[in-house]
Design goal:
With about 290 residues, this protein is an alpha+beta fold. It folds into three domains: about 5-55; about 60-175, Uridine Diphospho-n-acetylenolpyruvylglucosamine Reductase, domain 3 (2-Layer Sandwich), CATH 3.30.465.10; about 180-285, CO dehydrogenase flavoprotein, C-terminal domain (Enolase-like, domain 1), CATH 3.30.390. About 30% of the residues lie in helices and about 25% in strands. The termini are far apart. Bound molecules: flavin-adenine dinucleotide. Flavin-adenine dinucleotide binds next to strand 2, helix 2, helix 6, helix 7 and strand 10.
């Protein structure tokens, strides 16, 4: 049985739909949800819950600045974010990630909110947003709340949205002092590949080559993004050298809890993700 698709144009229209249909299914670009629905068995007869498309709601699109923070509204597409001058200047790690996400078609359709709400361990936008300390804003018809992205992602496919809430936007502090923004993902091929392992890194490197501050996050190697203050503390204050990175590699191995799946074995993921730390050597003399 075909589902009804509703296309609200404003947030007020959306809240009215929520009021009438609390069991609805939201989507934005549909590049995750529609693929998932297509792989499910046909719906039984009856009246299935409607699909509600958010992509025509202008109030959920765009990027703006407020009090030293940048807000990326949830239904902004990956292509729009990549082109934004503020994002390019202040968060090059995000631009780099998005340039590797899917294909041009997927980037034109897919949204940052959809990537976050899918909460896949392989969701590419999550690692840079964790390193940037992003917060997310959930809104319902009568309230809004802000929380760290780390608290919003509960596990694979699970986020802390309550009934009647949507993800409204992602907030990132504009001023930071990291001078190295790094992201790399390893997939089965270069393009259109879901990550087998990925790593985002932000480093404040002194003129003498000392790591003054570092944030690291790994994707596809744990139920959610893997982060470890132990590793960051072990590297802080040390020179960016091969020996220092090699000494930290056992800590990385310990921090990861990958699984076997169709793309790679757990052991391969762990090895690759640990080795990604050595890629930071390219910035040694930067
Ligand atoms: C061929 C292909 C290649 C891909 N490659 C990659 C890749 O390389 N890396 C990667 O990370 N992903 C990849 N993806 C997955 C997907 O494109 C991204 O996750 C994309 O960002 C999802 O955004 P969307 O707007 O299409 O989400 P949708 O499918 O519209 O929604 C996904 C989920 O989020 C919820 N949702 C969406 N917006 C909101 C909101 N504002 N508030 C509350 N809930 C919301 C929906 O209810 C749904 O559960 C790929 C997908 C395809 C089909």
């Amino acid at each position: 049985m075909a589902r009804e698709v509703l296309l609200p144009r404003t947030l007020d229209d959306l809240w009215e739909i929520f009021h009438a249909e609390p069991e609805l299914h939201l989507y934005a670009g549909g590049t995750d949800l529609l693929v998932k629905l297509r792989s499910q068995p046909p719906l039984p007869s009856g009246s299935p819950s409607p699909l509600v498309c958010l992509e025509r709601i202008d109030g959920l699109k765009g990027i703006y600045e407020e009090d030293g923070l940048v807000c990326i509204r949830a239904c902004t597409t990956h292509s729009e974010i990549m082109k934004d001058p503020v994002i390019r200047q202040h968060f090059p790690v995000l631009t780099k990630v998005l340039s590797l996400l899917g294909s041009p078609h997927i980037r034109n359709m897919g949204t940052i909110g959809g990537n976050i709400c899918t909460a896949s361990p392989a969701g590419d936008t999550l690692t840079p947003l964790y390193t940037l300390g992003a917060s997310v804003e959930a809104r319902s018809c009568d309230s809004g709340r802000l929380m760290p992205l780390k608290s919003f992602i509960l596990g694979p496919g699970s986020v802390a949205l309550q009934q009647g809430e949507i993800l409204y936007g992602i907030w990132i502090k504009k001023d930071h002092d990291f001078n190295i923004h790094h992201f790399e993902k390893i997939g089965q091929r270069k393009a259109l590949a879901i990550a087998i392992a990925s790593m985002a890194a932000l480093i404040k490197l002194s003129g003498e080559g000392t790591i003054e501050k570092i944030r690291l996050a790994w994707g596809s190697v744990a139920p959610t993004v893997a982060v470890s203050h132990t590793i960051e503390d072990a590297l802080t204050g040390k020179p960016l050298t091969e020996n220092v990175l090699r000494d930290a590699m056992p800590l990385v191995t310990d921090a990861l809890s990958p699984i076997d799946d169709v793309r790679a074995s757990a052991g391969y993921r762990r090895r690759v993700a640990t080795n990604l730390l050595l890629r930071l050597l390219q910035y040694k003399d930067a």
